[in-house]
Write a structure and sequence with these properties.
single chain, seven-stranded parallel β-sheet, 10 helices, 11 strands, globular, binds NADP nicotinamide-adenine-dinucleotide phosphate
């Protein structure tokens, strides 16, 4: 079964490549843009003709659509470019998926919710607070507009990173390495989730759909440990035995508005035996190890 992964050079896409390539029954083809090299093919998702040609020539059975603009502050400043990638390119993918008969898994975000009444079931009313969340919700609607596809919402991700800045979780370590007193958000409650676990869930969904062609709709996956950035910083400082003074900031952070607690209810996938949760500290230590001072 051929699986095409968009965003294969990104934080989640690399984990998807690694997890799915380890399956003997899947033939994986990854695409990226600026970092595409080696086995990863360069494909600009904003070029709808190129996308159509590529998908028609590859004829994948599954398209795992992970490419997106996912930095809320960038989206806030450039909503047009964000929409082009997160919504319009998603429409191109859904259209060509219809032509070749591919099943699409669209990776979405807990930021479609406003964070005022957690936990959120997949059918809870979305109410994004920022333009990133709005664009991802519009991308979801494109997916739901064509029957039979899947939306997988996940919260803040971390995993093996190319630089500490790549994930909002590991970027805390960069702040701590500067030493001295560090002020961290103690207002927003997050459920940091390992990219390896999300990739495992995607593999399970793909394998399951082989036997259950009706598998479709909106589903959630998330780590189950609630942590503020201040608490994540404590875990990093402990793991690295850093001599820093952590200061908790209990009011909302500056920048694009964010939900305070957009905990995702994952019971639908749990009930059907899909999911894996690596303990936060285990994944965190593995992600940080190459950067240990
Ligand atoms: P990422 O690390 O920022 O990677 C973005 C990917 O999109 C890269 O592979 C990039 O390719 C590709 N891309 C950007 N513009 C493109 C274009 N015009 N054409 C083709 N490819 C393009 O993102 P991520 O963190 O892996 O996010 C994956 C998915 O998870 C996204 O849908 C995101 O909304 C969702 N999500 C992420 C988080 C998180 O904390 N990271 C949380 C919740 C949901 P190049 O780098 O090669 O240019």
């Amino acid at each position: 079964m051929k699986v095409m992964i968009t965003g294969a050079t990104g934080l989640l896409g690399r984990a998807l490549m690694s997890e799915l390539s380890s399956s003997d029954s899947l033939d994986v083809i990854g695409t990226g843009l600026r970092r595409a090299r080696g086995a990863i093919r360069r494909l600009d998702l904003l070029d709808s003709r190129a996308v159509k040609q590529f998908v028609e020539s590859q004829s994948p059975a599954v398209i795992l659509h992970a490419a997106a603009e996912r930095r809320p502050d960038v989206s806030e400043n450039d909503p047009v470019a964000t929409r082009a990638l997160n919504v319009e390119a998603t429409q191109t993918i859904v259209d060509v998926a219809g032509t070749v008969g591919a099943w699409v898994i669209y990776i979405s975000t807990d930021y479609v919710f406003d964070g005022t009444s957690p936990p959120y079931r997949p059918d809870a009313a979305p109410n994004p607070l920022n333009r990133y969340g709005e664009s991802k919700l519009a991308g979801e609607e494109v997916i739901r507009g064509a029957a039979g596809h899947c939306v997988l919402r996940v919260p803040v991700l971390f995993g093996p990173v190319e630089s500490l800045e790549e994930s909002p979780v590991t970027s805390i370590a960069r702040q701590l390495l500067a030493g001295g007193a560090v002020t961290l958000d103690h207002w927003a409650i997050r459920y940091p989730t390992s990219t390896d676990d999300v990739a495992f869930v995607c593999r399970q969904l793909i394998e399951r759909r082989r036997d259950e062609p009706e598998l479709a709709g909106t589903v959630h996956w998330s780590g189950d440990q609630p942590l503020t950035k201040f608490e994540m910083a404590r875990a990093i400082a402990e793991a690295w035995a850093l001599d820093v003074r952590l200061i908790a900031e209990s009011s909302p952070p500056v920048g694009a508005p964010r939900p305070q607690n957009s905990q995702l209810d994952c019971s639908d996938l749990e009930r059907i035996g899909v999911g894996r949760r690596t303990p936060f500290r285990t994944s965190l230590n593995a992600s940080l190890e190459p950067f240990r001072p």
